[in-house]
Design goal:
By secondary structure, this protein is mainly alpha-helical. The chain has 5 helices and no strands. The longest helix has about 35 residues, at about 55-90. Mean pLDDT is about 80; it is low at about 145-150.
Length: about 160
């Protein structure tokens, strides 16, 4: 009983600390972590169903999911730099995490699409309207950018493949 109370207190303190640090990003980040876990599990189930289960691919997927959180941190860092720079010239931003929020939402959409693709391969029936919505979102989210993004290299080098 005492261990359960201690774990609950530790969990509550961790969530409170995250809420203070992340502010309005805490709920989207928690949702991102949950959909990343669901995508990993459905990906493992898909690999088992298709007889392609591999620990090497599983570890690669886990590392990839961890790197998603690093991308969120980069977005948050950009937000902080912009807010700090604007504060130096006397401009206050009403929104704390604009770029970080866009990154989190983009990653959540990608993870949701991947979950649905995994479930479809496993054989879970999908309603027709959901499939058309997924295809539309996927086209919009994964559309190849027309301009180059980094050091003159094509954007597709930095765009996740599905």
């Amino acid at each position: 009983m005492a261990e359960t109370v201690g774990l609950k207190a530790l969990f509550s303190a961790a969530i409170a600390a995250l809420s203070i640090y992340l502010g309005e990003l805490v709920i989207p980040v928690i949702i991102l972590i949950l959909v990343m876990m669901a995508d990993y599990l459905t990906g493992m189930a898909k690999a088992w169903f298709t007889k392609t289960l591999s620990s090497k691919i599983g570890i690669r997927g886990f590392i990839k999911k961890t790197c998603y959180l690093i991308v969120v941190c980069v977005g948050m860092g950009a937000d902080w730099l912009i807010a700090s720079g604007l504060a130096e010239v006397g401009v206050e931003m009403p929104v704390t995490f604009m770029i970080g929020m866009m990154v989190v939402i983009w990653l959540i959409i990608n993870e949701l699409l991947s979950i649905l693709e995994n479930l479809a391969i496993i054989g879970v029936p999908m309603p027709g309207f959901l499939i058309s919505v997924i295809e539309k979102i996927k086209r919009n989210v994964c559309e190849e950018p027309e301009q180059e993004h980094y050091a003159g290299e094509p954007a597709e080098k930095y765009t996740p493949k599905h």
